[in-house]
Structures are given as C-alpha cells and as structure tokens.
Amino acid sequence: MVNHHLNRRLLMAGMGALALIPQIARAQDYIDLSWSDLVPEGQPALPPALQSLIDHDQAPMNTQQPRSTGVRNEWNGQIVRLPGFIVPIEYSGTGVTAFILVPFVGACVHVPPPPANQLVFVTTERPYQSEGLFEPVSVTGMFGVSSMSTELAEIGYALSADLITPYQA
Question: Which residues are within 8 A (CB) of 124 and not within 5 positions of it... i.e. 6 or more apart?
C-alpha cells in the first residue's frame, strides 16, 4: 500500500515538473536586451545633446540626430526581447506593421531622434493594434545590425517581430 501511494506521488510530482518545462523552455527562447546593450562599450546610451532640454524652434528634428558611436553585432541572428515605444511607419488596416522602436516617449516625433544605435526598425507580419505613441511595448523576434534611413532618422538595427506585447516590468 505504501509503494502504491509513493508511486502515485512520484507520478504526480513528475507531471507537475513536466508542466513547467514549456515555461522554462520559453524563458530561454530569447535574450533580454536593454537599450544600453546596443551601444558600444564605454559609450553613453544617450548623448549629451539629448540629455538636456530641446529647443523645438530649431531645425527639423531629424536634422538634429546625434552621430552614432557604432553598433554591436553580438546579437545578429539571435532571438531577443527589447522594450520601447512605437513610432509607426506602415499600417495594415488599423494595425501597425512597420515601426521604429525607440527607447523613450517622443523620440523621433517630439524630440530629435536618438543616435542610430538607439533605434530599431521593426517589421511584423501580424499587424499590432497600438494604443499610440505613449504605449510601452516589448518586442520579441530575430535581431540584427541593419543600417537604414527613413525621413525621421538613421536607424542602426532591425528586428523581425514574432511577438509584440504591452510592456510589463
């Protein structure tokens, strides 16, 4: 009788452990990046020009973009997750399918864009129903260095999004 209960407990414990495997595997499916990870070592994440007040009466915002100090390629081809804010570029219906992921609210729109190594061009096959420019999101997908230019800014990275979710700390 004791062995029967012991085997049943062992079976239940094993089933409980198996239920955790997808969560453990999912937790290891991507690399969590922060914006400072995208800047070469020893360089500030935000240049001094963006750390002070912005004069909105100056030249257009995109002409005020500070020079990039370079990019990092350690995560080329890796699945990463990066939080940020959406600056929409393309829509499909009411959802955004291409956007610039920026590290702070208003970047590229209300203030000069950050350097190229602080901007990520994101594309997604499934349109994301964005709540607007002030909604923080987390984007998970294939990451890489990709120099590109838009009318808003020069961009240093690209991310093909598999998952876009509202940001949760």
Answer: 96, 97, 98, 141, 160, 161, 164
In terms of residue numbers, what domain contains 151? 33-166
Q: 75 and 91: one domain? A: yes
Using an 8 Å Cβ cutoff, are 94 and 131 in contact? no
DSSP 70-89: ----TTTT-EEEEEEEEEEE
Alpha-carbon distances, residue 52 vs 57, 82, 110, 111, 127 (angstroms) = 15, 25, 14, 11, 35
pLDDT band of residue 14 (cuts 50, 70, 90) is very low
Same domain, 161 and 132: yes
Say yes or no: 93 and 13 in one domain.
no
Question: Domain tally for the chain?
Answer: 2
| Residues in CB range of 77: below 8 A, 6 or more apart | 142, 143, 144
Contacts of 96 (CB under 8 A, 6+ apart): 86, 88, 89, 90, 124, 127, 128, 130
Read off the pLDDT of residues 114-141 as tens digits, 9 standing for 90 and up.
999 999 999 999 999 987 777 899 999 9
Question: Beta 136-149 vs 120-128: how paired, if at all?
Answer: unpaired
**Token couple for 3:** 């062995």
